[in-house]
Design brief:
The protein is α+β, with helices and mostly antiparallel strands and 474 residues long. Helices cover 38% and strands 20% of the residues.
């Protein structure tokens, strides 16, 4: 099961790989693993992209380990691929040129918490759930929630966001500083704990979203938020996607500080009802969350209910009971598995685009029309507050005709988003899967600038080669 990958860098010489692995074995002992099973686990993708395992995996425990891996690999011209939890969706953890994967599972310490300053310092293997469990008794939390229990290093590398982005932003807005191992094994410090700075180039944001192609993140300083006094979850069904989007736009324009606002089209609601044992009306649905004091949350809910009614919304129900909120949002986070259960045995590819919010309804409805025309099944969920939505396309990977229609659909989806002033990916990243769209979105000059930065910071092209940047400027 796999689609063609066009940017395949030249593999490292077998002798060079052997020499590097021998040196790594001497340095790391049983923390260097070359078994096929472990290597395959570190190339696992949840897409149709072909799995491409590394030649070896090193389980790092501290920054010095990462430095030594990079130095040894650099001396032999062997690629280095960082691995958090492997939840990326565009082949970011594949090793098309072979090489050594650094697994950050054991670099999972919360190093410092400064609750009074609303920040903390962590290692890259810390997952978002583990971090919030650690912070829970200090009255603060980390708000970025991409659904999967991803590592924070991986989330920074892919510029992740998720359901809370409409209020709290993405990883781009929530990382203050990084420590990064560069191509010679030395460390770059990109910032401090200060909430703002105009000191030099903004290196922090250069590495956020770079997908491990410019260096290896070994420490993050991130922003925290105060845990709200009251949290309410709400659901509201609509006659149409357009009505749901219009209600969202009006809510944002009138200043209702919605923390989460998610769109599920009718097909996705049906899938979630079946999988998560819910009884929601099988029409377009908005799931919302409001944060604040008890009075604030009640006022926000009341104001949104009035807007929803004006835009064709049905019954608006909200609750502050934690168990009810958890059930509702768990159903949203299980959307992928709900889709997969619709057609057991079929392949599922999750893809995303993002458009200006005023064009979201147009983009979603045209996408639904395209699915009907192509006789394809792909429920839709969207971070409607920021114009980002996801399609979970179901196809029989052994049916060449259906696969071809699926490829056509995904291409048309991106072209539609670009024509509306949007992007080929709001949060999944480029990786291998969307390189072919980067030129159309940004132009050749921007790609040349990216290539120049890559060459300056990674002249040997050892950091995650074959990702983001197309093979040539032609």
């Amino acid at each position: 099961m796999g689609t063609t990958i066009t940017n395949i860098p030249k593999r490292a010489e077998p002798k060079a790989v052997t020499a590097a692995v021998e040196k790594l074995a001497a340095r790391f002992g049983n923390r260097l693993v070359t078994s096929q099973a472990v290597r395959d686990q570190h190339a696992h993708t949840t897409t149709w992209l072909t799995s491409q395992p590394p030649d070896a995996v090193v389980f790092a425990q501290e920054t010095a380990d990462v430095q030594d891996v990079v130095r040894i690999c650099a001396s032999h011209g062997v690629p280095v691929i960082a691995f958090g939890t492997g939840t990326s969706l565009e082949g970011q953890v594949n090793a098309p040129a072979g090489g050594v994967c650094i697994d950050f599972r054991d670099m999972n310490k919360v190093l410092e918490v400064h609750a009074e300053d609303l920040d903390c310092v962590i290692e890259p293997g810390v997952t978002r759930k583990a971090l919030n469990e650690h912070l829970r008794d200090q009255g603060v939390f980390f708000p970025i929630d991409p659904g999967a229990d991803a590592s924070l290093g991986g989330m920074a590398s892919t510029r992740a966001s998720g359901t809370n982005a409409v209020r709290y932003g993405t990883m781009r807005e929530n990382v203050l500083a990084l420590k990064v191992v560069r191509g010679d094994g030395e460390i770059i410090k990109t910032g401090t704990r200060a909430k703002k700075s105009s000191a030099g180039y903004d290196l922090t944001h250069l590495f956020i979203g770079a997908e491990g192609t410019l260096g290896i993140i070994t420490e993050l300083t991130i922003k925290l938020r105060g845990i709200p006094d009251t949290i309410a979850a709400a659901a509201c069904s609509f006659d149409s996607v357009r009505g749901a989007c219009q209600a969202t736009i009006m809510a944002i324009q009138t200043g209702i500080p919605v923390a989460r606002i998610e769109l599920l089209n009718a097909e996705q609601v049906a899938a979630c009802n079946s999988y998560s044992k819910l009884t929601l009306p099988q029409t377009p649905l908005l799931l919302l969350e409001f944060h604040g004091s008890e009075a604030d949350v009640a006022e926000q809910s009341k104001n949104f209910a009035e807007i929803a009614t004006e835009c064709g919304g049905g019954d608006f129900t909200w609750t502050t009971r934690p168990e009810d909120r958890t059930k509702l949002w768990q159903a949203r986070h299980d959307a992928y598995w709900a889709v997969k259960a619709l057609r057991p045995g079929a392949g599922v590819v999750a893809t995303d685009v993002c458009v200006p919010i005023s064009r979201l309804a147009d983009c979603v409805t045209e996408t639904e029309d395209d699915l009907k025309r192509l006789h394809l099944q792909s429920p839709i969920v969207g971070h409607v507050g920021d114009g980002n939505f996801h399609c979970s396309l179901l196809c029989d990977v052994d049916d060449a005709d259906e696969m071809a229609r699926g490829e056509d659909f995904m291409h048309r989806l991106v072209e539609r988003a670009l024509s509306m002033g949007g992007t080929c990916t709001g949060e999944h990243g480029i990786g291998q899967g969307k390189q072919k769209y980067l030129r159309g979105e940004l132009g050749g000059e921007a790609i040349d600038a990216m290539r120049a930065i890559k060459l300056a910071l990674d002249p040997q092209n050892i950091f995650n080669p074959g990702k983001i940047i197309p093979a040539s400027s032609g």
